[in-house]
Design a protein that fits this description.
Layout lengths: L11 H18 L3 E4 L2 H8 L11 E5 L4 E6 L3 H7 L6 E4 L11 H11 L6 E3 L15 H5 L4 E2 L2 H8 L3 H24 L6 H20 L13 E7 L20 E10 L2 E2 L5 E4 L4 H20 L6 H16 L10 E3 L6 E5 L12 E4 L3 E3 L3 E3 L3 E5 L4 E3 L11 E2 L3
Helix pairs in contact: 7-8, 9-10
Length: 404
């Protein structure tokens, strides 16, 4: 007899708890209703994962505990499949109108009016996001009164991960690590940057699906659940350098990126590697980068602010390494359902670090016309410090690639 374990996704009870926290926040703020347009926020509160297009999708949560969804007709059965416990739907034919002669957001206006919400309305955004050719009015224009637009009401909840979210991210880290291993094993002189990256991602995905079976629940229609890539040479001196055509050569510096996606939650893993024996210049900058990342691990503690943690790392790079001129970005960022989320380890982010937050720790050093040096790890803030969830080797010996 085959035993099926629970699927790797957030359950209905946790989505209900999230909505109840929003209901409570609305009551505390004196808001009658809150409109949610951001696709990731919609998914966070409802479990409805979808492909965002020009067609507006929105949730309306009321202080009285009601939930309504604005949907295009093409998403109705999809929503009902994922969110059977949310039956209140406001359905429009198509965008821009589908022959109805009215913009989809006018249905949202009518819904709020029927609900008696004629004053204190909040939203993550004052209208639908402009994507894929969408044009439309601000929600405040339709309602005729100001809308309290505030992404923090939901995004502050998202910042602290639950035990279920952390478990999904641990699993995502496992497969990000595996994808990176496969990629590193494929790298050799003459290998094609794009082919190795995509080949390793596909092989890792095959292994992931074979092992997890029906426990794995896809949450998107694009991309693979296990991914790895790299850029090479002087291109790595650009923190977000694009892929380049051509083959790996001896002496190339590689900066990699790998991640898994489980239940919609991502991991993050980046490493700096070298093809062939490293020279003294590479060893110097690699060691400096490793020391800066360790300073980041040490700085990430609950009760401090993000700015204080960043200040420690920048001070170390400036005073101990003398390399402040090689810094191009802050130490890290939170993430989960998205690759970057609030808050940020930045000198101007004064958010308090709390247990349950998950950050990347990735201070980088970028030497123009030579190479970039950056490791990134997924790190969970604990009650007394932090825990690294991505477990791929960090040391130079393990990241030196044989040229043949």
């Amino acid at each position: 007899m085959t035993v099926h374990s629970d699927p790797l996704e957030i359950g209905a009870a946790e989505y209900l708890l999230r909505r109840e926290r929003v209901f409570s926040a609305l009551q505390q703020r004196g808001l009658g209703a809150y409109c949610v347009f951001g696709p990731t926020r919609v998914a966070y509160l409802s479990g409805f994962f979808f492909s965002p297009t020009e067609r507006p999708v929105a949730l309306v949560l009321t202080a009285a505990g009601e939930v309504h969804a604005l949907l295009p007709r093409l998403e109705v059965t999809h929503f009902q499949q994922q969110c059977p416990e949310l039956p209140n739907l406001e359905i429009y034919a198509e965008y821009p109108g589908g022959g109805e002669g009215r913009h989809p957001l006018t249905l949202l206006q009518g819904l709020l009016t029927r609900l008696g919400q004629t004053g204190r309305v909040g939203a993550d955004l004052d209208g639908y996001e402009h994507r894929w050719g969408y044009r439309g009015p601000r929600l405040s224009e339709l309602l005729g009164w100001p809308v309290q637009a505030d992404v923090a009401l939901i995004d502050d909840l998202r910042a602290i991960k639950s035990a279920a979210e952390t478990a999904l991210m641990r699993e995502a880290c496992r497969w990000g690590d595996r994808a990176h291993r496969l990629m590193q094993d494929m790298v050799e002189v003459g290998a094609q940057e794009l082919l190795v990256s995509h080949g390793a991602s596909l092989q890792a995905t095959r292994e992931m699906l074979a092992e997890l079976g029906d426990r794995y629940v896809p949450k998107s229609r694009e991309g693979m659940p296990a991914n790895a890539m790299f850029i090479r040479g002087a291109n790595t001196a650009h923190p977000h350098g694009l892929h380049q055509a051509g083959a790996v050569t001896q002496g190339d510096v590689l900066v990699t990126g790998a991640y898994g996606v489980v239940g919609g939650y991502e991991s993050e893993l980046e490493r700096t590697m070298i093809v062939g024996e490293p020279d003294a210049r590479f060893v110097q900058y690699f060691g400096a980068m490793m020391a800066a990342q360790q300073a980041g691990f040490d700085a990430l503690r609950p009760g401090r602010t993000c700015a204080e943690a960043e200040r420690d790392v920048r001070r170390f790079i400036r005073d101990e390494l003398g390399m402040d001129d090689l810094v191009r970005h802050h130490t890290g960022h939170a993430f989960g359902l998205e690759g970057h989320e609030h808050p940020f380890l930045d000198l101007d982010d004064h958010s308090v670090i709390e247990p349950g937050m998950v950050f990347s720790i990735e201070p980088g050093l970028y030497v123009p016309k030579f190479a970039g040096f950056r490791h990134s790890d997924t790190v969970l803030v604990t009650e007394h410090g932090s825990e690294r969830l991505s477990l791929y080797p960090r040391e130079l010996e393990a990241l030196t690639v044989s040229p043949v």
